[in-house]
Amino acid sequence: MNLRFPILVFDIETLTDLKAGAHLYHLDLPEEDVEQALTKIRRQESGMDFQRLPLHEIVCISGLWIDEKGYRLFSFSQEQHSEAEMLAKFLSIFDKKQPTLVSWNGSQFDLPVILFRAMYHGLSAPSLFDQGEIDQQKRFNNYQNRYHHRHVDLMDVMAMFNGRNFQKLDDMACLLGFPGKRGETGYHVPEYVRNKQWLELTSYCEGDVLNTWLLYIRWLLLKGQLNQADHQQLLQSTIAYLQTQTQQTEFLQVWQQTSQYTVFTADTFAPKN
Questions:
Q1: From residue 220, how far is each of 56, 73, 167, 206, 248 by CA, in Å?
Q2: Which residues are CB-neighbours of 65 under 8 A, at least 6 positions away?
Q3: Backbone angles phi, psi at 215, to 5 degrees
Q4: 22, 29 in Cβ contact below 8 A?
Q5: What is the reported pTM?
Q6: d(CA 172, CA 240)
Q7: Could you read off the pLDDT of 231-259 as tens digits, one per residue?
Q8: What is the DSSP string of 174-236?
Q9: Which residues form the Predicted 3'-5' exonuclease PolB-like domain (predicted)?
Q10: How far apart are CA 182 and CA 180, in angstroms?
């Protein structure tokens, strides 16, 4: 098995930082009117609602850690931590280890948001953002370079680094027999945070992480870094681990159903001799 352990698959969920946005645009408005004003400004700036990256406040960071000992799924959310605390916890991982980082659209969204928000809170993250100024080896393999594999942005590499080929995580997961968004429509993160539905929030974010992990090992199979036996072993060990994670019961149930839609995945949950 040609894997570089440890591996960290990650994803973030965000909301618009209304306080920072009001300060940036000099909005002297009641708080309930700020978001509407920021959306209007953004539409005028870009023709879209998607907010500028520095104004994305992180409300959840989820990750799947894989090493020789097995798997560990984790989440940091606003239920217990401020944004600065979440970032500090996540960034400290890189001070202790140098994992292979895996994401979906992490190069264009997750890592830049982490960079901007870490700077906003005055945090340091040399292990993640060093490009050789501190550790000369990072000149040749760092987390920022598009063509290095210390950070694998699957959306980018599967598009062969051509933006015209970018696909949605949900679409690719469903196409390849994985759960995807599990039938959810729309973006529910603001609702989850507003209603303090922290389990729903972390489960949602972890679902994206798990789909990304499953796509990653399929990509490694394509590249020949895994053979069929290794790939099946990782699938089965992932299933066995998720059976111990009660918050991902639905993910497993949907995966069992969606696996039937492709010939290659139809036997994923078949009883093993």
A1: 32, 21, 18, 21, 24
A2: 6, 7, 8, 71, 72, 73, 74, 99
A3: -70, -35
A4: yes
A5: 0.96
A6: 23
A7: 999 999 999 999 999 999 999 999 999 99
A8: HHTTS-TTTT--S--HHHHHHTT-HHHHHHHHHHHHHHHHHHHHHHHHHHTSS-HHHHHHHHH
A9: 49-257
A10: 5
pLDDT for 32-47, tens place per residue? Answer: 899 999 999 999 999 9
**3-state SS class at 54:** helix
The whole-angstrom distance between residue 137's C-alpha and the CA centroid of its chain comes to 26
Backbone angles phi, psi at 155, to 5 degrees: -60, -40
Give CA torsion, residues 72, 249, 82, 24, to 10 deg. Answer: 110
Among all chains, which residue has been given the structure tokens 């062969």? Answer: 160
7-260: CATH class: alpha beta
Among candidate residues 176, 205, 182, 206, the one with its CA nearest the CA of residue 268 = 176
Q: With 0-12 CB in 10 A as exposed, 13-18 as middle and 19+ as buried, what is 153?
A: buried
CA neighbor of 24 nearest in space, from 59, 57, 67, 70: 57
Is residue 237 a contact partner of residue 71, using CB atoms and an 8 Å limit? yes
Bridge partners (DSSP) listed for residue 14: 58
The C-alpha atoms of residue 24 and residue 36 are separated, in whole angstroms, by 15
